[in-house]
Amino acid sequence: MVGEDRLWWSNFREKKRNSLTNSEFEMICKLHSEYMNHKFFKPCTCSPKTINRWIEDLNEIYSLPYDAS
């Protein structure tokens, strides 16, 4: 994860809440589609299983070594 995406994710992770805003949901969908190489789509909000898995996926990518050079 690089640049503004990394900064956004860092700020997102600092928030200690159990819910997402619409803009956070949208951004997670966008980031997941980019970093996991799939078409953008929004999973159903009736069950948090998919979005929680996507957050875990993005946390793994965020934790990879980052070279800012």
Helicity range of the residues? 55-70%
Based on secondary structure, the structural category is mainly alpha
Question: How do the helices and strands follow one another from N- to C-terminus?
Answer: HHH
Basic shape = globular
Mean of residue pLDDT values = 92
- Runs in which pLDDT lies below 50 for 5 or more consecutive residues are none
List keywords for this structure.
59% helix; 0% strand; mainly alpha; 69 residues
Question: Can you tell me about this structure?
Answer:
With 69 residues, the protein is mainly α. The chain has a domain at 1-6 and 24-34 and 43-64. It has helices at 3-14, 22-35, 49-63. Helix 2 (22-35) crosses helix 3 (49-63). The chain is globular and about 40 Å long. The model has no long low-confidence stretch (mean pLDDT 92).
Task: Compile the SSE list and pairings.
Elements: H1 3-14, H2 22-35, H3 49-63
Helix pairs in contact: 2-3
Concise overview:
The protein has helices at residues 3-14, 22-35, 49-63. It is mainly alpha-helical.
